[in-house]
Amino acid sequence: MFVLAVALAMLLPGAQPRDNLALSTPDHFTTIVAGARATIARVTLGPPSAAHISRRSRRVAAMVNVETSAPVYDVLYWSGQNTPAPNGAYGPNISDSASSWFLEYQRAGAVDVLDGILRRAHDPSLIQLGLRIFHFGLARQAADGSFPGSAWPFHGTAMFLSEAAPALLALKASSFAPEFATDLRWDTRRMHKAALFMVRSVGGAGKIDDSTKNHRFYEAALALGATGLLAGDRTLVTWSRRYAWHGIHLEQRDGVMPEDSGHDSGYQALGMVNASRYLELLATGHLRKALYAALQRGEAWELSRVRSDGSIDQTGDTRTVGCRENDPTGHCKTVAYDPIFSALAHWAAISGDQRFSRASHLVYEHSGYGGH
For residue 40, is pLDDT > 70? Predict the structure, then answer.
């Protein structure tokens, strides 16, 4: 389930998010490190482990099993940490004012929370660091569950919850839960209110702020579903299924998950990362079967975009080529390697098809995060 991975490239303290998708790419629960650092990290910290996750938490355990699998582990590391400002602000929020900021950037705390659980079993201070990042955003919540001054009431909140909620589910299911019980209660109450506000902001469950972007339905599904599990709110889980089904129904027969009436290799991959986590954490019965089939088609299309050298064929992409869109800092959105090699790796772990593992490695190496 979690995104225990997909890219912040910040092994070094104080480093900033580097992904060009900014408000839509999951800086996810991990840190991508270059080859030499990755080798050192493996030697000093050892392989990831789910030993601190209670087997009673079956869904969380299923998610962690995927995230700690060989295909995912080999390209998505959670051995670094994301260091915020002393007050917990992260990324552009360090300098932005309370009247103009981005809740979604505070999702970076998930890297540290998950790293502390799975990789640094003797360093709970890293979990606390991640919680501090969450707290900066959640402390700005209004009584109605909104976040005044933050952009994109639905999309921004969904991005934050889709990262933070899975991380807290892992913490809640871990042996560290008693130590962080107060933090878990505080965060859960506020995240629950945020999820309810998110839905109200668009006029009700099943509605969304931009229906032309397929990936946002999976983002919303994971945000609501994971928060529902965390807060014990079955209504949120039920609502999440509407978004998951909508995402499935938008997919074309050729596996394209439309973005702005076309296709986009980066944003499709991003949607599939969230869909893969939803599959392991929340999907059951007919929904699970349909989502698996949708991912199978979508991943096959994504694989067709990978060239033999690991570069991405962006011909016809609608959003991340030719500077068609800018991120919140004004930079052009370009090829999104992080979610692409993450999506391929997750599918390799879920399906057992090693073609996707090999392709994931090719993209990872070509991107520069494999040490080349």
Answer: no
pTM of the model: 0.85
Measured from the Cβ of residue 343, the count of other Cβ atoms closer than 10 Å reads 31
Question: How far is Cα 159 from Cα 162, in angstroms, rounded to an integer?
Answer: 5
Structure tokens at 237: 């889980």
Map residue 31 onto helix, strand or coil: strand
Q: Compute CA distances 308 → 343, 358, 363, whole Å.
A: 18, 11, 9
DSSP-based three-state secondary structure for 201: coil
Q: In the structure encoding, which two tokens stand for residue 364, read together?
A: 């990872």
pLDDT tens digit sequence for 252-265: 999 999 999 999 99
Residue type, 142: A
What Cα–Cα distance (Å) separates residue 298 from each residue in 59, 210, 256, 305, 365?
Answer: 24, 21, 6, 11, 22
What tokens were used for 124?
A: 């709970």
| Residue boundaries of the structural domains of the chain | 35-367
What pLDDT shows up at residue 322?
Answer: 85
If phi > 0 it is left, if psi is from -120 to 50 it is alpha, else beta; for residue 151 that is beta
Q: Residues 119-149, buried b or exposed e (16+ Cβ, 10 A)? A: bbbeeeebbbbbbbbbbbbbebbeeebbbee
Q: What's the whole-number mean pLDDT along residues 347-364?
A: 96
Tokens of 284: 């059951």
Pairwise CA distance, residues 147 & 118, whole Å: 31
For 98, phi then psi, to 5°, come to -65, -15
Gyration radius of the chain's alpha carbons: 18
Angle at 225 between CA 347 and CA 338, to 5 degrees: 35
Work out the percent of the chain whose per-residue pLDDT is above 90: 65
Task: Write down how long the chain is.
Answer: 372
CB 21 within 8 Å of CB 320: yes
Whole-number pLDDT of residue 118: 74
State the pLDDT confidence band at 227, using cuts at 50, 70 and 90.
very high
Q: CATH fold of 35-367, please?
A: Glycosyltransferase (1.50.10)
**Mean pLDDT value of segment 115-121:** 70
Task: Give the per-residue pLDDT at 15.
Answer: 31
pLDDT at 31 over 70: no
For residues 8 and 17, the answer to whether their CB atoms sit within 8 Å is yes
CA distance 117 to 2: 13
